[in-house]
Amino acid sequence: MSTQIITRQAEVNGIRYNYTTQGKDGAPWVTCSHALANNLSLWDEVAGSLSDRFQILRFDHPGHGGSSAIPGPYSFDMLIENAIGLWDALGIEASHWVGLSIGGMMGYGMAARHPDRVLSLTACDSRPDAPPEYADYFQYRIDTARDKGMDSLAQSSVERWFTPASIEADTPAVNKVRDMVRATDPVGHEGCCQALKKLAFGAELTGIQVPTLILGGELDKGAPVDVLAETAAKIPGAKHVVIPGAGHITALESPEVFQRALDEFLVSL
Question: Could you tell me the end-to-end alpha-carbon distance of the chain, in angstroms, rounded to an integer?
Fold first, then answer.
């Protein structure tokens, strides 16, 4: 077994992707894809908990963490194509996919369009479509970052993504995400926001045939419980789990409950 975390970079379609690998040599792959204005460190605890049974790939979206950015707008087609390209560069024929927010949204498209490459889908706090008010939120993020920089989005982001109790306690998870927002390249942030404004995977959900788990926080503002329940109902055989008392970044706000649900799902496969 190799427990060492190896950090490398790979060029995919003009973007230098930063990624890490760790885990049990020869075991199935699990790919973890983070939320907007976060980075691959979102998955530190999850990767550690799975690394005795799986090989774990984590990567940064363009302009996030250690990945380079190209001018946008980006699209989900582009982000998915690049994720497949990263797998190809690393010789990964198939992988489980665990994504949170934009990462889970990518997972809908990957599972629907590349079922031969996706072993299972875990979509966390990820709605499949962008109604007008949701798209407007990402235009607000674009405008604010242009006018005032990423630092101006740090506090409003954690207030949207975490529960009032976590905000009041100023937990390590809240501080971690606040710092990740500040460190995000505004070019990559804007490119991803443009993709999110045009999120539209609802029509493809019924075509997803891989085992699927939909996870979501009980108090998530961006991906409410009822929306995720409807999403799961459209995917044949999908399981829907609600994480009590959690907001949007469930992997950090309720790590024990999150990891237990993920472990149970992966073990069941």
Answer: 22
CATH H superfamily, domain 2-268: Alpha/Beta hydrolase fold, catalytic domain (3.40.50.1820)
pTM across the whole model = 0.98
Query: Which residues face 240 on adjacent strands?
Result: 214
Angle at 203 between CA 228 and CA 248, to 5 degrees: 25
User: What would the two tokens of residue 149 be?
Assistant: 């920089």
Give the start-to-end residue ranges of the domains of the chain: 2-268
What average pLDDT does range 30-45 have in this prediction?
Answer: 98
Mean pLDDT score, 213-220: 98
Q: Taking a C-beta distance cutoff of 8 angstroms, is the pair 23, 96 a contact?
A: no
230-254 burial code (b ≥16 CB/10 A, e <16): bbbeebeebbbbbbeebbbbbbbbb
Each residue's pLDDT tens digit, 45-73: 999 999 999 999 999 999 999 999 999 99
CB burial of 123-144 (b: ≥16 within 10 Å; e: otherwise) equals bbbbbbbbeeebbebbeebbee
Do 251 and 34 touch, CB atoms closer than 8 A?
no
**pLDDT at position 1:** 42
